[in-house]
Amino acid sequence: MYRIYLAFFNSMAGFSFGLRTERAIRQEFALLVVAAPLALVVATTPWERLALILSLVAVLCVEFLNTCVEKLCDHVTPERHDEIKAIKDMGSAACFCAQAAAVVIWAIVLAERL
To answer: What string of DSSP letters covers the chain?
Structure first.
């Protein structure tokens, strides 16, 4: 039980650090805070609500992972390196895919609502 307790506080420390230091994480978290209650109003079924909210949570998760990769790359080699750039670009592509998926999910639910 103590390990779960420590893991929770480590996670909250990481969450806090990400919010303090990364603009993209702050933006996506703000979007989640605004859009999650909106999802409760817009969606007509529990599954739609779940899809809308989880799509935004997924975007935030991928952004956290991308930030981890970028910070690790910068720590390993702060100078410009073509392979490191490719790694960072792939992390950015992962963020884009999660964001595009969220947009599609929201568009489908909103189209059904209208």
So the answer is: -HHHHHHHHHHHHHHHHHHHH-HHHHHHHHHHHHHHHHHHHH-SSHHHHHHHHHHHHHHHHHHHHHHHHHHHHHHH--S--HHHHHHHHHHHHHHHHHHHHHHHHHHHHHHHH-
